[in-house]
Amino acid sequence: MPQQITIAIFSENKAxxxxxxxxxxxxxxxxxESLTASESEVPGIHRYTILVEITPEDADKxxxxxxxxxxxxxxxxYSNDEIIYREIxxxxxxxxxxxxxxxxxxxxxxxxxxxxxxxxxxTVIQKTGRREATTQLFEELEPYGILEFVRSGRVAISxxxxxxxxxxxxxxxxxxx
Amino acid sequence: MSTTTKPDTSETSSxxxxxxxxxxxxxxxxxxxxxxxxxxxxxxxMPVYDELYKYSDQIHHVLVRHxxxxxxxxxxxxxxxxxxxxxxxxxxxxxTNLITGIADAMIDSTPMVCITGQVPKHLLGSDAFQETxxxxxxxxxxxxxxxxxxxxxxPEVFAKAFYVAKSGRPGPVVIDITKNAQFGELDYQYERxxxxxxxxxxxxxxxxxxxxxxxxxNSAERPYILFGQGVILSEAEAELxxxxxxxxxxxAWTIMGLSAMDTEHSLNVGMLGMHGNYGPNxxxxxxxxxxxxxxxxxxxVTGNLEKxxxxxxxxxxxxxxxxxxxxxKTDVALVGDAKEVLSLLTPLVNENSHEAWHQKFxxxxxxxxxxxxxxxxxxxEGMMTMGEVIKNLNQHTKGEAIIVTDVGQHxxxxxxxxxxxxTKSNITSGGLGTMGFGLPAAIGAKLGAPERQVIAVVGDxxxxxxxxxxxxxxxxxxxxxxxxxxxxFLGMVRQWQQLFFDKRYSATEMVNPDFxxxxxxxxxxxxxxxxxxxxxxxxxxxxxxxGAYFLEVMVGKENNVFPMVPSGAGVSEIRLE
Lengths: 177, 577
Prior knowledge:
The structure holds two protein chains of two kinds.
Chain A lengths: L2 E10 L4 H10 L7 E6 L5 E10 L1 H12 L4 E8 L3 E12 L8 H8 L3 E5 L3 E8 L1 H11 L4 E6 L3 E4 L5 H12 L2
Antiparallel strand pairs in A: 1-3, 1-4, 2-3, 5-7, 5-8, 5-9, 6-7
Chain B lengths: L17 E3 H11 L4 E4 L6 H9 L5 E4 L3 H15 L3 E5 L3 H4 L2 H9 L4 E7 L15 H5 L5 E5 L5 H13 L5 E7 H5 L1 E3 L19 H13 L3 E5 L2 H4 L3 H11 L3 E3 L14 E4 L6 H6 L5 E5 L5 H4 L10 E6 L13 E4 L2 H8 L9 H23 L8 H12 L4 E4 L3 H9 L8 E2 L10 H11 L5 E6 L10 H7 L4 E6 L4 H10 L14 H7 L3 E5 L5 H10 L4 E6 L23
Parallel strand pairs in B: 2-3, 2-4, 4-5, 5-7, 6-7, 9-10, 9-12, 10-11, 12-13, 13-14, 15-16, 15-17, 17-18, 18-20, 19-20
Antiparallel strand pairs in B: 1-8
Helix pairs in contact in B: 1-2, 1-7, 3-5, 3-18, 11-14, 16-17, 16-22
């Protein structure tokens, strides 16, 4: 059964690499739900965190196809119970809706969201959490008028304790054979 | 790329090493042992062509007539010589014309480096004349690719390109070089690449897995070896033969593995797959242990996966980890180079003979001979058949020639019946099935193995896709022999239309040109025959002729290739008629 799978890909930051990564998905007609590029804990190594909905069997094949790309060091896939993950969402609300005593403020408070910025004509709310939580807040703020909404891609930390640098050390030995 | 050294750009470097990017390109090629390159010039690659002119005593440039021909010729060269094929083209249409050959090399694991010119860096993305996004287009069909925009990048990128193309599971690499990088200067210094730290070229096979594989083989009563091109690419032919003979295991091949083992060897049981031999297809569903070596379980090999060797324990020896469990679930994975792994495995394997098991293949062979082979290879009436032409070729070549095929019925017949005593002798487009591959690949194969007889066996459809490459034979005087098996149809499609579309021959009948006149126009000796009484002498004349030769053989228009595994069927449901 297809399920939410988080794919983590580690590589040096090189022009064209993202195209090579996404090609591995598109040629299999796997839709990318979200994609986040960032540094990793290892200097010079970047990571892509990609959320897809596929079967574990297809995830296995995809990760091996990714990992064999010359410029990709490592690729992993995780089911949701193997990671701690979050997304960040920002909501732009008309200033009047957020006036003192407005029920919208109560909604923000109840969701443990925070007011990121108060401007003359609007207020920006920030909510960090899983998709269901940011979606729930969206639905509850909607009656007050959401002028703009954005949600980041998933970021995820894996539960297994083996560190990337240990994988890279193994790779260094293997590549020098 | 940790072992490659960046060019020294300090002012103290020797002035003699200060050269242009375009000269660096040619010197890099020389460093990698390239003495032959297939290509076609154009605006964005002219500086490199100017250097090729200067270095023409060291690098032979073969002018093709279409860039697709350059890629297939480079593939043929790589496959017959075991070296990296090189080709070069200009930007835009020059580059896009390479794509078919690059995709073909990718799926058939052929080491190839393609160099394309590109508009100057400052014009990238501006829709300049003959600009196209070569990186974007080629990334999905290359093992690696890189766009060079500064001259100083050239040595390091070329070193990595050749290493990546040749090592591990080989494949095509594209280097796109902007024109400013060709005109620019660098302090040239070259160091060959031997390691790419993000890439494992030679996986280290697990010792436990080796023992597990040996135990499975030693316990097997009906073991079955299935080998592919990985054996040829890792030059493991002797190691394969040693395992086969020691353990007494019948060995079948994929189309890409053909010629890795003498076709007349008593344990070589033939081809598995859609038009393979009856025995291997039926017995794959009766074996108890399957040892797959250097192959990837293509759907043309396995047929319906739900009906493919479900009873067997599977050992898969393969250098590309991504192939393990991709199509067929593996019990023991031996991830590594075929030559290395086989040399470690065979000492762990017991001597055996499996006589009763061999006998079952022989019984199948007898059935296939009666129902198919006799009629196909030794007909006595009617139009000539493709099979009898190949059989006659065998009698003359004694299995010593390189046979290059195009794609279609003639390809299947040639692969079924051609005899091979030497490796690297069957050159065909297996994975992509590229019509038009045959003629340019044969030209490349001959240039890669000039001492060997190279015979292109082609159909009337495929040859017309790249027939312009006869111009290379004319200009470069390449002594290839072309056998055109002319049935005036796109035969394989027609066969499917006959069998599966109620004989509705949609767009498969060919109105052909006078091929003799075309050959004559290119000053190639030629002959057309339609009587089997002329076949033997005509083939003799072709092979005796000192030069290229074009032999057109008219064959039955509506002959079919059998046996055949219908699409979607299991391999053991193979039809003999």
